[in-house]
Amino acid sequence: MIVVQDYHKVYRETVAVDGLSFEVAPGSILGLLGPNGAGKTTTLRALAGILRPTRGRLFVAGHDVVADPVAAKRELAYIPDDPKLFDALTVWEHLQFIASAYRVDDYREKGEELLRRFDLTEKRESMAQELSRGMRQKVAICCAYLHEPRAILFDEPLTGLDPYAIRTLKESIIERAAAGAAVVVSSHLLSLVEDLCTHLLILNRGRCLFQGTLDDARAQYAGLQGSASLEEVFFRATGPVRSPGPAPVASGPVDQPAP
Amino acid sequence: MDRSLFLLIQLKYRSFVRRTYRGVRSWRGAILLLFTLGFFAATLGPQLFLVVTMGNRPELQRVVGFVEPMAPIYLFAFTMVFVFTSAGDTTVAFTPSEVDFLFAGPFTRRELMLYKLSKTGLGLLSVSAFVTAMALINLRWWLAGFIGIALTLAMVQLVGMIVSLGGQILGEVAFSRTRKLALAVLLILGVLAASQVAGRLQAEGAAKLMAVIRESPALRILVAPFEVFTKTALAGRLFPDLIGWGTAAFVIDAALVAILLRLDRDYLETTAAISQRVYERVQRMKQGGGFAMPVGKSAARVRVAGLPWLGGFGPIAWRQLLIALRTSRGVLISSVIVIVMIGGSFMFSNGPAPGGPRESAMPWIGLGMVFYLTFLFSMQLPWAFRGDLDHIETLKTLPIRPVAIAAGQLAGGALILCGIQVAALALVGAFAPSGWPILATASAFCVPFDFMILALNNLLFLLYPVRMAAGTTFDFQMFGRMMLSFALLFVTLIPALGIPAGIGGLAYLVSGYSITAFSVTTWLVLAVELVPLVLALAWAFWRFDVSTQTPA
Question: How far apart are the first and last CA of chain B?
């Protein structure tokens, strides 16, 4: 569903992402981990078609993000770390616009259901500028889910959410994956990744340090017990010096690309 | 263009109406709207009266005649400065919400560009209506003015967009360098032209020389396309003036749109970066006013030696001095541009009527201009409490008495402002060498005057905090608040300056008409007035409640 091949992103002298390749199959949830400046957001923004890759190819649902961006974006939802809503539009008008953009004809029922689920029904007619940080995040998530995307990219999705919303979001991500969506979650919250993700991708300074399942990770980093936490894996992978070494890859690709 | 993008524009305009309606439902909002409308009525009323009662009488036509020959030159200069500075970035900037929703949405680049053009076009119509109304007296026919101004603004925007997007072909670094190079070339040409003009000024007379420059083939070719737009705006008849020039202007704009769409570069990434820069600029303006400039790496080289403790005044003043030094570039450049433009026009023209301005009037006009600019700019300076709106909480936690904080907050900005004023007055002196005694005396008043205006400004601000940047285009509530703040400052300045001047006047009479007695007395009274003002400012800071009074 999501395929990234030899993705490079260079800003002047800075290499933000250096030859990254991975795949996320339908039904998988990939946790994107790495310290600040590792290249996580750059990768997500490139998949969303906002940033142009310096080299390499990115596919969403079989569509090349650069060559056929509209078709790729139609299958995709991207929720940035700090979603900026249209300040003067109401919550419902956001859904109305997204429905129009993604050609969702039966959006009313879906929209009402999403608002109910994320506890936004009372805020239906509130303008975005009147909402708290967490509520804006929830509106962005509702907008992302409305067109039932086949690929979903989350960048720090829990920021500002209360415990109820966190639980709802986690459940919804698992449901979307079960329904066949490929999900990427970038987060510094290792517990979130540990709870949700079927696969891991650890980045540092633009290079892949590890990709595979959590069990693969435990096996990869010798010395860790089978019950080792993701935190231990992360620190072992990124190391105290955090210098990018060779990228260990678990046997075979993370997932097979979509046909 | 995709229908959802039309829907988005429609929703945005509907929200503007809704926001305005919600705003006026409160007493405060209704008063602010009335204040705004009153301001427009006061500005437009006399113009409408003159236009209705005098029509196309020669008294009005003289103003148009004065504006017409210079307008293409100013328009050319404005376009160049707009396009080759960061101001041009705004033409291709999208809002952060547009970047998040539209760039990642299922739209082609061309659709997004058409959306941007449509939104800009609709905005320009509103701006054009506003400018036409404000400049009614300087136009021959309001309809031609409206059409001409709209087409002119569109041309400036389109050129800005083409240069910004075309620049990507060169690459960001190369484009930045090219832009700087172009500015440098323009500046050198301007200096060369000015030096040539200065040499011939004495020999040929300012007005004659200006006429020669205006008629020179090089300048005529350069400004010819801009003349099309000014002729449209100043057209007096439907045919041939408006239809002829208007069609030509429209064709130029259409050609620019065609070029823009043909470019169709993969602009999303660069535009996202530019949009972020513009967004940060707006945020800075909201935090610190219109002159809150980005502090570049080179600014870090500006250092100030630490000041002694002085009851806490020293560290606060040191911080403000450092901030003021590092962010004063915008004020300095703006002041110089305004003075050079107005001063230059003034000196190169005899004005529309016989007995027009001469060099002897220049120092007084320059003086008025400098102090008026200080008044105007004082609300947009990112210094003192106004620039620290989001840091007041931190200031309150410091183990320093409010009076020391208040005095320290004022000191840095006032001293830098004073330096800028002295530089500006020196520039005025360059235009009018005979006015040096007047300008030197005025310079001595800079320090108490700047402390006074900043203290009053910040006192009003702490009592009635308003961010000096609109959240949206045509934010009438915000406009009303800004106008009210200006009016309050103006009203409080009258006694604050009037009392020292009155006492100084008494000293002038008692001393047998001594200018020195007048100046010294006025200066001293002005300085004494600062004591209660600083105490009042300290009280306002002490009572400021960050949880309820910080504006959104």
Answer: 35
**Does the complex come out with an ipTM higher than 0.85?**
no
pLDDT 10s digits, A78-91: 999 888 888 778 89
CATH of residue A14's domain is 3.40.50.300
Question: What does residue A12 show for φ and ψ, rounded to 5 degrees?
Answer: 45, -110
Radius of gyration of chain A (CA): 18
Domain assignment present for A104: no
Angstrom CA distances, B441 to A56, B212, B366, B375, B445, stand at 68, 38, 13, 19, 7
Structure confidence at residue B353 (pLDDT): 42
Share of chain B above pLDDT 90, in %: 18
Number of domains in chain A: 1
Token output for A237: 């992978």
DSSP designation for A56:
E
The answer, for A84 touching chain B at a CB cutoff of 8 Å, is yes
Distance CA B157, CA B164 (A): 10
pLDDT value at residue B223: 82
Q: Does some domain include residue A82?
A: no
Chain A residue numbers touching B8 (CB-CB < 8 A): 86, 97
Has residue A33 been placed in a domain?
yes
Identify which of B4, B100, B472 has the shortest CB distance to residue A101: B4
The domain containing residue A219 runs over which residues?
Answer: 1-75+149-157+182-259
User: What are the phi and psi torsion angles at B527 (to 5°)?
Assistant: -65, -40
Q: How far is B486 from chain A (nearest CA, A)?
A: 27
- Count other C-beta atoms under 10 Å from residue B25's C-beta: 8
Tell me the residue type at B59. Answer: E
Q: Cβ contacts of residue B370 below 8 Å, gap of 6+?
A: B335, B339, B421, B424, B425, B428, B442
Backbone angles phi, psi at B187, to 5 degrees: -65, -45
The partner residue sitting opposite A88, judged by closest CB among B7, B15, B105, is B15
**Cα separations in angstroms, B213 against B66, B217, B223, B549:** 16, 9, 12, 55
Cα separation of A63 and A58, whole Å?
8
Question: Residue A173: enclosing H or E segment and its boundaries?
Answer: helix A163-178
Structure tokens, A41: 């957001």
Residues of chain B that touch chain A, judged by Cβ-Cβ distance less than 8 Å: 2-5, 7-8, 11-12, 15-16, 18-19, 95-101, 103-108, 173, 266, 268-269, 272, 471-472, 552
Task: Indicate yes or no: CB of B95 within 8 angstroms of CB of A85.
Answer: no
Is B292 strand, coil or helix? coil
Chain A residues in contact with B106 by the CB 8 A cut-off are: 70-71, 73-74, 101-102
pLDDT confidence band for A8 (50 / 70 / 90): very high
Residue A170 belongs to some domain of the structure: no
Q: What is the mean pLDDT of residues B154-171?
A: 80
A104 CB-near residues (< 8 Å, 6+ apart): A98, A110, A146, A147
Residue matched to tokens 């940080």: A133
What is the tens place of the pLDDT at every residue in A83-134?
Answer: 888 877 889 989 998 898 888 888 999 999 999 999 999 999 888 878 888 9
Residues 6+ apart with CB under 8 A from B336: B423, B424, B427
